[in-house]
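forwarding from the other thread:

> can someone predict this with nicotinamide-adenine-dinucleotide?

sure thing
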Amino acid sequence: MKDVFNLADDLGPFKVIHVHEPGIGLKGVLVVDNVARGPSIGGVRMATDVTTEECARLARAMTFKNAAADLAHGGGKAVLAGDPKMPKAQKETLIRGFCRALEEVEQYIFAPDMGTDEECMAWVKDEIGRVVALPREVGGIPLDEIGATGFGLSHAIDVAAEFCDLEIRGARFVVQGFGAVGKHATRFLSAAGAIPVAVSDSAGTIYNADGLDVDHLIALKSAGKSVTEYEGGERRDGDAIIDIECDIWIPAARPDVIQEGNVDRLKTRMFVQGANIPITYAAEKKLQQRGILNIPDFIANAGGVICAATEYQGGGETAAFAAIEEKLRRNTREVLETAQREQVLTRDAALALARRRVEQAMSYRRWNIF
Ligand code: NAD
């Protein structure tokens, strides 16, 4: 395991805490990266191969994501060693033990990540109370059910449309991955008059140049079926969705789906990142060189984390939707204007924005270096 001080730089990490409770087989790490903007929020990742180094890297990503979303929160992350599919009673013991061990670290607010879910967060609430993304029954806002991230994407797209002279009404869009993010993005964009011409899931792609019916698609998924079972569309394989001509292309499935080797197949005016890291940096460069407007993941898909922060402040769904709309619109505009003015990649403009906000917050602290 790499010494954490090899990872230290001018932003953090602020605290690195190793937790070991041999009696229950508990091994975990918490990294609080930066708290200049407020207590850190970041998920607990449960996996068999987690490391301190990975935890520190993910915590830094949260520092930037929360700052880019303009939340009064810093970034942190926790990792817990273990198979997330272990028997539930054993998992509950580990989660309860882990959060109890970190009870006094008030600069970290628990949240779910890979291998943990809202039920795990309910156990954390029961133990120590400092947690977001809870089940509705204990004060949570079910962000996937209400479509927080899809709603945010639709607002990012609405702002971006001005930058490429696109009329949303009648714009043709494509969504790769018809899950929590993709489904709701389709719903909100369709309501604004845009036309979904293709969507996909892990079974393949469905295409209709005249448009797909969003309610029909959602009904299929609710019945546990694939979008490829849609009647009145042309069925294609999963990869074929990259070639479909449209105005807006939305990745909402897996990481790294667009790379240098396939980016030139995209025929769109706008690429809006619903998924996390769906495209490599080199491919983003090529995309923008071709004049395609690109909205990076941590700007476009921030709806979920904004919803979680609203929940933490005691707000409900109405407050969450208002915060998502306001922040997504402002942040998207700021990133696109900076990228245009300084002729840089939108990802670089977004990272610079996030770093600036963190440094500004750090300058108010007693031991500031900025
Ligand atoms: P999800 O599991 O609800 O949906 C994923 C969908 O992608 C499923 O329909 C699945 O069938 C489909 N899929 C899987 N592999 C595919 C492939 N190769 N081609 C096409 N479709 C494929 O997940 P989600 O919550 O919608 O998250 C999607 C992405 O968005 C992830 O990268 C996630 O990290 C990111 N994200 C989610 C949120 C959120 O609020 N849920 C917020 C920010 C980022």
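The pocket of nicotinamide-adenine-dinucleotide is lined by residues 143-144, 148-149, 176-182, 200-202, 238, 252-254, 274-276, 301, 304 (CB under 6 Å). thats all i got for now
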